[in-house]
Design goal:
With 601 residues, the chain is an alpha+beta fold. The chain folds into three domains: 340 residues, Alkaline Phosphatase, subunit A (3-Layer(aba) Sandwich); 70 residues, 2-Layer Sandwich (Arylsulfatase, C-terminal domain); 155 residues, Galactose-binding domain-like (Jelly Rolls), CATH 2.60.120.260. Helices cover 21% and strands 25% of the residues. The protein contains eleven helices and 29 strands. It is globular, with a radius of gyration of 25 Å.
């Protein structure tokens, strides 16, 4: 009897262990192409840790994301096409995900999981767009799209700015590992949206030294025009990613969490340069195959059979329904999903899904992908089985299929934007001729003043320069305001104050010693507060960190905080304006951001 009792207890213990909710770790690389991994045939590099996720788990044969960063993140987070959630671009407010959307983290949090995100958010900065308002209890990283400092970077922790020590990916993965260890006794959902190999092309010596003299034997479609300095740096950056994935996998082993942890790895768009990508047409920014195809590896020991290959086409929109089903987590969103649940296939069963079309939309250009064909943004039709590199347009040979997919495209566009889709002309540039798509602007104000998140950062990215003031670079995400020289010049932010009250105001600035002393005023309606630009603060540009030249991001400096005292803000929408009252020198200052902190109601 005692033996039977002990056996029953043991069986109950085993059942309890088996029934424990699985942990989830999601890696999202930034600007890494399908071809950046040795498992896909790239002999320029070895990526053993990333490859191991495929070998020990599942690979998705044809997995599609978006042409740019923020849209993919929104699709992963919501299970819905990014255009439905208000994400229409990557900067100046277009990257923000509507606040009525529920995220995958909301679902896991509601089911008792600890939730954390560590890295590049890129779906809104201010509360309630901030990750802490989107289901993530813990957040370390930056909310912008580009970041200009990869060594000892300025980051934030739950809304509080700080400067880290070390290389940005190493730092963020280290914080993710701390989160995993802290929550090892309970289920956790850990999202690690990496910041590389997005430019600027900076990487530690230990990785750069492996590739700085590399012959780069596998070249991209640009051939001799390929920028080998960029390619070598990207290889080094992916090498760093692989090392960091290995750190997390080792931590899971040490904590004996491997068997009950789902690990996911994918990227947010095609490669950000003309490097090797399997010969596919297009790269980041375009909706052809090479611009939107990504790896997707998923490992869950004992549940997903090693070497599993998922052959039906899939996309970032499928991750939310798939991961919540694998973890038996109810979805809290009441909005209809675009994504499909692939859990049955991953666990060795058969799918009940029929045929589907995946839509890839970017800036007025729409491409439709079926299991076998792609209708591109200019109406070309390609057999992706016989012609995976889109060499031969067969629209004239199969007009019925081309017309059918064109009807699908226009119906989708009309559903989302209220207007039919007009294909861009062959050879067209920019956003094509589509008149029905959304304009490249965002009229939503930037929210300020929530008691649960009292600090609101308003970076130059979210403001508008006037009267000669300029951005420091063409990429707003990584810019600051410069050329502030006259009293007529100003910077404005369209804000909506949620809570009326006293706010502490400050700016992050640099100013040469010869120009100190300008009197500046920050105003909102009738309210205002003034300050004097002092002391002089103009440290050197951090222009010695890169392995390849910058093209989009500004070189950064160490900005200084200047308090402007308090300002009483009414609960209303209006323009927050920063301008100068007195300018004793040649210029006022360069401004990185304004920060408003709610002190009292």
């Amino acid at each position: 009897m005692m033996k039977l009792f002990c056996l029953s207890i043991a069986l109950l213990a085993v059942h309890s262990i088996q029934a424990a909710p699985p942990n989830v770790v999601v890696f999202l690389a930034d600007d890494s192409g399908w071809g950046d991994y040795s498992i896909n045939g790239n002999t320029n590099i070895q990526t053993p840790n990333i490859d191991s996720l495929s070998k020990a788990g599942a690979s998705f044969d044809r997995f599609f994301v978006c042409a740019l960063c923020a849209p993919t993140r929104a699709e992963f987070l919501t299970g819905r096409y990014h255009s439905r959630s208000g994400v229409l671009g990557v900067s100046t407010g277009q990257e923000r995900m509507n606040t009525d959307e529920k995220t995958i983290a909301d679902s896991f949090l509601a089911s008792g999981y600890a939730t954390g995100a560590f890295g590049k958010w890129h779906n809104g900065s201010q509360w309630p767009y901030h990750p802490n308002a989107r289901g993530f209890q813990e957040y370390v990283g930056y909310t912008s799209g580009h970041w200009g400092e990869y060594f000892d970077p300025p980051l934030e922790h739950n809304g509080q700015a700080f400067r880290a020590k070390g290389f940005i990916v190493d730092v963020l993965v280290g914080r993710a590992m701390e989160f995993i260890e802290t929550n090892r006794e309970k289920p956790f959902f850990c999202y690690v949206p990496l910041t590389t190999p997005h430019s600027p092309f900076s990487v530690p010596d230990e990785h750069w030294n492996k590739f700085k003299d590399s012959p780069v034997t596998m070249r991209g479609a640009e051939g001799d025009k390929e920028d080998l300095a960029v390619t070598r740096t990207v290889l080094a950056m992916v090498d760093n990613i692989d090392m960091n994935v290995g750190r997390v996998l080792k931590k899971l082993d040490e904590l004996k969490l491997t068997e009950n942890t789902i690990v996911v790895y994918f990227s947010d768009n095609g490669p950000n340069s003309g490097r090797w990508n399997g010969g596919m047409k297009g790269k980041k920014g375009v909706t052809d195959e090479g611009g939107v195809r990504s790896v997707l590896f998923m490992r869950w020991p004992g549940k997903i059979k090693p070497g599993t290959m998922i052959t039906p086409i899939a996309g970032a929109i499928d991750l939310l329904p798939t991961l919540t089903k694998l973890a038996s987590v109810p979805m809290v969103s009441t909005k209809p999903l675009d994504g499909w649940d692939f859990s049955t296939l991953l666990l060795g069963g058969e799918t009940k899904h029929g045929s589907r079309e995946l839509m890839n939309y970017n800036g007025g250009r729409l491409s439709v992908r079926t299991q076998t064909h792609r209708l591109d943004a200019v109406g070309g039709l390609f057999d992706m089985v016989a012609d995976p590199n889109q060499k031969k347009d067969i629209a004239a040979e199969q007009p019925e299929l081309a017309a059918k997919l064109a009807v699908k495209a226009t119906a989708w566009h009309e559903e989302i934007f209220g207007s039919p889709y007009a294909a861009a002309p062959v050879g067209g540039k920019g956003k094509g001729s589509n008149k029905g798509g959304p304009k490249n602007e965002d009229k939503r104000p930037y929210p300020v003043g929530y008691s649960e998140f009292p600090i609101t950062m308003l970076p130059a990215r979210d403001g508008e320069p006037h009267g000669g003031v300029q951005r420091s670079s063409s990429a707003p995400n990584c810019s600051y305001f410069v050329n502030w020289k006259t009293k007529d010049a100003s910077m404005t932010w369209d804000i909506d104050v949620h809570t009326a009250g006293e706010y502490e105001a400050s700016i992050e600035y640099v100013c040469p010693q010869a120009d100190v002393g300008s009197m500046i005023v920050l105003s909102f309606g009738d309210a205002k507060t003034t300050g004097k630009v002092i002391p002089g603060w103009y440290p050197r540009l951090l222009d010695d960190q890169d392995r390849a030249a910058r093209k989009g991001e500004s070189y950064m400096r160490d900005f200084h905080t200047l308090s402007l005292g308090t300002i009483k803000l009414a609960a209303q929408r209006g323009l927050l304006t920063l301008r100068a009252l007195e300018i004793p020198g040649q210029s006022v200052a360069e401004v990185l951001r304004v920060t408003l902190t709610l002190k009292s109601k």
